[in-house]
Amino acid sequence: MSRVLATDVPRHVGARVRVAGWVHRRRELKSVTFLVLRDRSGLVQVVLPEPAGVTEESVVEVEGLVVASDQAPGGAEITEPAITPLSGPVQAPPFDLYRPNLSATLPTILDNAPIALRHPRHRAGFAITAASVAGYRAALDALGFTEVHTPKIVATATESGANVFGIDYFGHRAYLAQSPQFFKQSLVGVFERVYEVGPVFRAEPHDTTRHLAQYTSLDAELGFIADHRDVMAVLREAVAGMVGAIRERAAESVALLGVRLPEVPAEIPAVHFADALKVAGADPDEPDLAPADERALSEWALRTYDSEFLFVTGYPMRKRPFYTHPDPARPQYSNSFDLLFRGVELVTGGQRLHRYDDYLAVLADPEPYAGYLAAFRHGMPPHGGFALGLERWTARLVNAPNIRQTTLFPRDLHRLSP
Ligand code: AMO
């Protein structure tokens, strides 16, 4: 008899089925025992006339008859079960997984991540993450992008030297990649349009609710652009694809968590950095936006444009990495952008320098960048790209106050395990 998923059981009323999963909850009453079984699809109730002899989180196979029941989740339950234990836990779980919410602090939850993640609400956030990535891939595939996989052990820092992890590489100094920036640019010279979904590493010395030492970066880079606005248009499609895929593939998780999915405007509103400072009431000489400014700008975009997304364009050149293309009309500003979503910076991107001589002009010592500059020696089109922080995205969607809640196994200043 082939295995039926828990949530499909109600479609088999009157028939015998075989299900398999974890004992989510065990309730022994005087003359009856209820087991709730959990598998990847959800929950199903099993009813026995005697004590079950299996503890919570035991892994079992159950064969039995499906009967309709108004009281059971999904409207049906399994009766007359034959239960085959596959493995028994050696220890009770550190918290009751059947309660609507885990009653434990975040550090305890993270210390016990392999078990805490089994909780339906915790798992649901990661189903939304997975759907988001599927939507990202589908949207960019449809726009002619090629998915690439680039090295994570690299010879030079890409963003700034400040937060790079150094490693010993066969006796040489090497680094964990802070971003696939140089590779994705080089690969525009090959494929014109590339994207990557992969880990990046930042030695973040600050303990914040939105920074990790390792996170998942959704990168893209495309050639033959007029300026950064062409990149912003692609990003809009990618984000719309992510929201669409969540709606299609993670509807149950969205419902379970009460997630309100955002509308992605056909054209996401944009404000220039100089105006953004005014809107946020910040000092006009500030070279960057503070987190409080980003929150103020998001509120303003919601009020003014009814949009939960806002582009801030034209950040000052002095705050952007060396590969950034200046705004030809106002060279102290750049052809770059951030995308704010629900009060935080979700994406950074922009147009890049694409002429070899422009790189020689901005790099004091081009020698360490020889590998990167090879592409530019041999002709590169005007190009640009962006990177979206995946864990931040899900955190904003599910309204998690801490990015660690939407990271399976977070890495930060204090945490390297599990
Ligand atoms: P940037 O460094 O701004 O840009 O990173 C892009 C996006 O990644 C997310 N992010 C983080 N998420 C979790 N923990 C961190 N420590 C962290 N740092 C950044 C944010 C951010 O918007 N190469 C450029 C991108 C480009 O221009 O294509 C870059 O890496 O959501």
TrEMBL record:
<keyword id="KW-0030">Aminoacyl-tRNA synthetase</keyword>
<comment type="function">
    <text>Aspartyl-tRNA synthetase with relaxed tRNA specificity since it is able to aspartylate not only its cognate tRNA(Asp) but also tRNA(Asn). Reaction proceeds in two steps: L-aspartate is first activated by ATP to form Asp-AMP and then transferred to the acceptor end of tRNA(Asp/Asn).</text>
</comment>
<feature type="binding site">
    <location>
        <position position="159"/>
    </location>
    <ligand>
        <name>L-aspartate</name>
    </ligand>
</feature>
<dbReference type="Pfam" id="PF01336">
    <property type="entry name" value="tRNA_anti-codon"/>
</dbReference>
<dbReference type="InterPro" id="IPR012340">
    <property type="entry name" value="NA-bd_OB-fold"/>
</dbReference>
<dbReference type="GO" id="GO:0005524">
    <property type="term" value="F:ATP binding"/>
</dbReference>
<dbReference type="InterPro" id="IPR045864">
    <property type="entry name" value="aa-tRNA-synth_II/BPL/LPL"/>
</dbReference>
<dbReference type="Pfam" id="PF00152">
    <property type="entry name" value="tRNA-synt_2"/>
</dbReference>
<feature type="domain" description="Aminoacyl-transfer RNA synthetases class-II family profile">
    <location>
        <begin position="140"/>
        <end position="418"/>
    </location>
</feature>
<dbReference type="InterPro" id="IPR006195">
    <property type="entry name" value="aa-tRNA-synth_II"/>
</dbReference>
<keyword id="KW-0648">Protein biosynthesis</keyword>
<feature type="binding site">
    <location>
        <begin position="210"/>
        <end position="212"/>
    </location>
    <ligand>
        <name>ATP</name>
    </ligand>
</feature>
<feature type="binding site">
    <location>
        <position position="202"/>
    </location>
    <ligand>
        <name>L-aspartate</name>
    </ligand>
</feature>
<dbReference type="InterPro" id="IPR004364">
    <property type="entry name" value="Aa-tRNA-synt_II"/>
</dbReference>
<feature type="binding site">
    <location>
        <begin position="389"/>
        <end position="392"/>
    </location>
    <ligand>
        <name>ATP</name>
    </ligand>
</feature>
<dbReference type="InterPro" id="IPR004523">
    <property type="entry name" value="Asp-tRNA_synthase_2"/>
</dbReference>
<dbReference type="InterPro" id="IPR002312">
    <property type="entry name" value="Asp/Asn-tRNA-synth_IIb"/>
</dbReference>
<dbReference type="GO" id="GO:0005829">
    <property type="term" value="C:cytosol"/>
</dbReference>
<protein>
    <recommendedName>
        <fullName>Aspartate--tRNA(Asp/Asn) ligase</fullName>
        <ecNumber>6.1.1.23</ecNumber>
    </recommendedName>
</protein>
<dbReference type="GO" id="GO:0004815">
    <property type="term" value="F:aspartate-tRNA ligase activity"/>
</dbReference>
<keyword id="KW-0436">Ligase</keyword>
<feature type="binding site">
    <location>
        <position position="345"/>
    </location>
    <ligand>
        <name>ATP</name>
    </ligand>
</feature>
<feature type="binding site">
    <location>
        <position position="348"/>
    </location>
    <ligand>
        <name>L-aspartate</name>
    </ligand>
</feature>
<feature type="binding site">
    <location>
        <position position="352"/>
    </location>
    <ligand>
        <name>L-aspartate</name>
    </ligand>
</feature>
<dbReference type="GO" id="GO:0006422">
    <property type="term" value="P:aspartyl-tRNA aminoacylation"/>
</dbReference>
<keyword id="KW-0963">Cytoplasm</keyword>
<dbReference type="GO" id="GO:0050560">
    <property type="term" value="F:aspartate-tRNA(Asn) ligase activity"/>
</dbReference>
<keyword id="KW-0547">Nucleotide-binding</keyword>
<feature type="binding site">
    <location>
        <begin position="202"/>
        <end position="204"/>
    </location>
    <ligand>
        <name>ATP</name>
    </ligand>
</feature>
<comment type="similarity">
    <text>Belongs to the class-II aminoacyl-tRNA synthetase family. Type 2 subfamily.</text>
</comment>
<dbReference type="GO" id="GO:0017101">
    <property type="term" value="C:aminoacyl-tRNA synthetase multienzyme complex"/>
</dbReference>
<dbReference type="GO" id="GO:0003723">
    <property type="term" value="F:RNA binding"/>
</dbReference>
<dbReference type="InterPro" id="IPR004365">
    <property type="entry name" value="NA-bd_OB_tRNA"/>
</dbReference>
<feature type="region of interest" description="Aspartate">
    <location>
        <begin position="181"/>
        <end position="184"/>
    </location>
</feature>
<keyword id="KW-0067">ATP-binding</keyword>
<comment type="subunit">
    <text>Homodimer.</text>
</comment>
<feature type="site" description="Important for tRNA non-discrimination">
    <location>
        <position position="73"/>
    </location>
</feature>
